[in-house]
Structures are given as structure tokens and as C-alpha cells.
Design brief:
binds S-adenosylmethionine, 7-stranded mixed sheet, Rossmann fold
Length: about 230
């Protein structure tokens, strides 16, 4: 996978999510022991939305994060955007959302459109992380907030061997069994290990122009939430 060019890698990611879309939500619940629901609530809280805010959930997939935002802020204007149509198609069957087709590297939105841009498990997949953050900065209004939830490589600790076994054996085996695409769940540890840690993400966000940046680690340091303000 690391030998693929930018466009090939984007096509690979789209194809992979198309193939696992039908079982994506179930696999998420099982992999995280249902904890992802709690993390999504934290993302919405950190977005500090007003009741009628305009929000973009980028890399929305089947729309779980956007759905949580609508639940908490029924009057908000929530846009759920992704570049894999099949993920959004599966999500639309669960409950309709304002889905929109969009590439995180070329957002089809005007400058200063949203009060908040949030994402869950997106940024690890984006082939140019810095450009992805800059695009989110561009479409945010002054004072608007960015919140990024993603997996991250934990610092070595007493649980490291168990985390390694969970990521490299249990998740791919379970993913293979449930989706028939174990490759997609080998992609998860591979991209997590290649991805920036929470401190490096802070540096990327600062470079894009964000202020008031912070982060927290969850799930034994395997998950990070980063936030900032334009
Ligand atoms: C791991 S899923 C996360 C879905 C959802 N946010 C969640 O929390 O369950 C990653 C999603 O990001 C999307 N994605 C990856 N790269 C993208 C890009 N450049 N532009 C838009 N969406 C992208 C994929 O299509 C996929 O639906």
C-alpha cells in the first residue's frame, strides 16, 4: 500500500470502504467494545455548537457522527460529506441525513461556510494530511472549531503487547469474518502506525493557522481527539 501513488491510494481507500460498507457499523461497535459511541459524543461536545450552528462532518462514512450532532442539535444545519458513495448509501438506509459527495482535499464549499468541522477516523486516510487540515481551515468561519478523532500510535506501555495483538491479529480476523475483507482491517494498524501522533497533529494544525489547540488521548492511548479554533 505504501508503494501506491497519491491517486492510486485514494482509489484504493474508496474501493476498500465500498467493499466493507455493509458491515462497517457493526465492525466499529465490536472493535471498540461500543466505546466509539462515547467518543463521538465527546467530539460533538468539543465542537461547542450553538443550537442553529452549521456543521460539516467530513469523512462521514455511514453518518454516525453527523447523526449524533443532529440528535443533540436538531435545529443545526448538519452536512455529512464523504468521497465513498456506498458508505453514505448504507447510512441513508439507517436514517436520512444531508449527505454530500466531497473529497477532503478539494472541498466543494465556499470559504467561511461552517461554524464547526468535525471528523472521525478520516484523517489517517487522507493522502495529504496538511492540505486536508488547510481545507478545513478554509471552510471554517472565523472563530469556528475543528475537532479530529482518530486512531494514533500509543507510547510504549505495559499494555503494548496486548494492543499489538489486538490490532494485528484480532481485528483483522474479526474483520475478515464479518466483512470478508480482512485486508481492510490490516490497513487499520498499518495506517495507524504510519500516522502522526497527537502532538504532531497539533503542529500540523498550528501550521494551518489554528489557535487554542488541544488534545486528549483515550482507550489506552490508541485514540486521540485534537481540537482547535480558527
Ligand atoms: C474509517 S471511515 C470513518 C467513517 C465515519 N466518520 C465514522 O466515524 O464511522 C473513513 C471514511 O473516510 C472517507 N474518506 C477517506 N478519504 C477521504 C477523502 N479524501 N475525502 C472524503 N472522504 C474520505 C472514507 O470514504 C470513509 O468513509
Amino acid at each position: 500500500m505504501s508503494l501506491l501513488t497519491g491517486n492510486e491510494r485514494a482509489a484504493y481507500v474508496q474501493n476498500m470502504f465500498t467493499r466493507i460498507a455493509h458491515r462497517y457499523d457493526l465492525m466499529n461497535r465490536l472493535m471498540t467494545g461500543g466505546q466509539d459511541i462515547r467518543w463521538r459524543k465527546q467530539v460533538i461536545k468539543l465542537a461547542r455548537m450553538d443550537v442553529n450552528a452549521s456543521l460539516l462532518d467530513l469523512g462521514t462514512g455511514t453518518g454516525d457522527l453527523a447523526r449524533e450532532a443532529v440528535l443533540q442539535f436538531p435545529q443545526a444545519k448538519v452536512t455529512a460529506a464523504d468521497f465513498t458513495l456506498e458508505m453514505m448509501r448504507v447510512g441513508q438506509k439507517t436514517s436520512p441525513l444531508n449527505f454530500s459527495s466531497a473529497d477532503a482535499l478539494r472541498l466543494p464549499f465556499k470559504d467561511s461556510t461552517f461554524d464547526a468541522v468535525i471528523s472521525a477516523f478520516l484523517m489517517r486516510n487522507v493522502i495529504d494530511l496538511q492540505k486536508g487540515i488547510e481545507e478545513q481551515f478554509r471552510v471554517l468561519k472565523e472563530g469556528g472549531r475543528i475537532v479530529i478523532l482518530d486512531t494514533t500510535h500509543p507510547k510504549k506501555n505495559i499494555l503494548s503487547p496486548f494492543i499489538w495483538i489486538h490490532m494485528h491479529f484480532i481485528i483483522p480476523a474479526l474483520g475478515g469474518l464479518l466483512t470478508g475483507v480482512s485486508e481492510a482491517y490490516r490497513y487499520l494498524p498499518e495506517t495507524t502506525e504510519e500516522f502522526v501522533n497527537a502532538e504532531e497533529m497539533v503542529a500540523c494544525m498550528a501550521l494551518a493557522g489554528f489557535k487554542q489547540i488541544g488534545f486528549k488521548r483515550l482507550m489506552f492511548g490508541t485514540i486521540a481527539i485534537n481540537w482547535g479554533e480558527k
